Amino acid sequence: MFESAEMRVSKQKSAENREALLRAASRLFRTRGVDGVGVAEIAEEAGLTHGALYAHFPSKDALAAEAFAYGSAGNLANAKAWADEQDRSFEEHLSGLLSAHMRDDWEAGCPMAASASEIGRQGCAVSASFTRAFEQTVEMIEGSLEEAIPPAVRRRLAIAAVAAEIGAIAASRAAGEDRPGAGR
Fold first, then answer.
1. DSSP annotation string for 43-72
2. Contact between 32 and 117 (Cβ < 8 Å)
3. Which long-range contacts link 11-18 to residues 24+ away (Cβ below 8 Å)?
4. 164: helix, coil or strand?
5. Per-block average pLDDT, block size 10, for the chain (184 residues)?
6. 132: which residues sit within 8 A by CB, 6+ positions away?
């Protein structure tokens, strides 16, 4: 049996479907964690079937890795655009990373802060995606430090700042009352 022309999905529509799946997965994973969301729910959120999801991603792990990269890339692009508005200092970067907005924006906030505690329980692809996002964020912060600081020290400070951001947001979210699902 052959597919009819109506049954085939155009390349553009396929790309739109993939984007919708990544957007939905990224948002849901940040809000409820990778293990707190099923593929059927992600597909439904994207307006697709779980069969369509598996047409784009061979597994939930593959989807999680790409959704993490997708969310991280968006956040990093936003952070770089903000930093490029003017030459932001290290202190301004820290203020942005540790802001109430970053803490409270579960759906669009930092994927690293949302997922750090569970990444170690996920597959290698998800871990590699986290590592790339961490490294890119470190590089951005490293670039905001004074050039008079020796490169090795700048690197250590940037790593410490990003790790502190992840930990501070995770801890403040854990202690907060207005988090998703609080009071259930």
1. HHHTTS-HHHHHHH-SSHHHHHHHHHHHHH
2. no
3. 14/56, 17/46, 17/48, 17/52, 17/56, 18/56
4. helix
5. 56 92 94 92 94 92 93 85 76 75 79 85 91 92 90 95 89 71 50
6. 69, 72
